[in-house]
Design a protein that fits this description.
One of its GO terms (biological process) is proteolysis. The chain is an alpha+beta fold. The chain is built from eight helices and six strands. A hairpin with a 4-residue loop joins strand 5 and strand 6. It is elongated, with a radius of gyration of 23 Å.
Length: 286
């Protein structure tokens, strides 16, 4: 306990002030760089632009992370309440699952109400050190106990394979590329540049974002399918398909105002159902 307290003290004393000072410094360079360097050389200009484009978004991202960490957003699911009865039931059922180096000791089930765009999926996992599975309250009325088992095992599959890590890295890369475009435009506005060069630079960064997003989508779909198959293997029966069908129906009936997002999710569900059907017939992906 003393060690943990000391770690927290070190964190508060050194890390947080450093990041705040870093953010202020970077902001000053970003806004007033043309005043700070009145006659910059080419090398200084390049260094300054790299500083503006990459380090500022990184600092901002870290500070946002620290803010959410401090508010508890990253430790406990927002607007969700732990269901101790369900948690106890599924801990007894699946706490012994082992995969590679993972060994699940406790399964926490959180119930929450549909409230915003970030909670369109009726079930999901909250990435933290402990396994926290989120289920929308109304969705429980749509699925059977067997389908609930399939959903829980699907989310366990995400946890034990740490599938969210790659997605987080790619999402940060996309954010960084977007920030790079903003600060590139800011630098160009300050120093001026030929229109053709500006267009080429913007197209280049947009191309990077599109490529990263495509990779993100491919990895996301593959991970979802892998967790579907994990659920089937553990249960020795395909309950996840009917759970996915009910998910699609549930979204159609209960989500209003996000038609495009619902269309995308339902399209992904249909692709997963086809792949699951292939797996059930051949025991492998095609």
């Amino acid at each position: 306990m003393k060690i943990e307290n000391n770690k927290k003290k070190i964190y508060k004393l050194f890390l947080l002030p450093y990041l705040i000072i870093g953010l202020i410094t970077v902001s000053i360079f970003t806004i007033f760089d043309n005043f700070i360097l009145l006659h910059p050389t080419k090398i200084e200009n390049i260094i300054l632009n790299i500083f503006n484009i990459f380090i500022y978004p990184a600092e901002l991202g870290i500070l946002l992370y620290l803010y959410f960490k401090k508010t508890g957003y990253l430790d406990e699911p927002r607007n969700a309440v732990k269901d101790y009865d369900l948690s106890e039931i599924y801990t007894k059922k699946y706490a012994g699952i082992k995969y590679r180096e993972s060994n699940i000791k406790e399964i926490n089930i959180y119930i929450y109400d549909l409230n915003d765009l970030f909670h369109l999926s009726p079930a999901g996992i909250f990435y933290s050190k402990a396994l926290k599975i989120l289920i929308q309250r109304d969705f429980l009325d749509y699925i059977t106990p067997d389908e609930m088992d399939a959903v829980v095992l699907h989310e366990i599959g995400h946890f034990i394979t740490n599938s969210g890590l790659i997605r987080k890295v790619l999402a940060f890369a996309i954010l960084l590329a977007g920030g790079a475009i903003i600060f590139l435009l800011l630098t160009i506005f300050m120093y001026g540049v030929q229109l053709s060069l500006l267009i080429n630079l913007i197209i280049g960064f947009l191309t990077v974002i599109i490529i990263l997003y495509s990779i993100f989508t491919i990895i996301f779909n593959r991970e979802e399918l892998s967790c579907d198959i994990f659920s089937i293997k553990e249960l020795k029966k395909d309950y996840i398909s009917t759970a996915l069908q009910k998910t699609s129906y549930y979204l159609s009936k209960n989500i209003i105002g996000h038609r495009y997002m619902i269309f995308r999710i339902k399209k992904q569900i249909n692709k997963r159902l086809k792949k699951i059907e292939e797996y059930n017939e051949t025991n492998k992906f095609k």
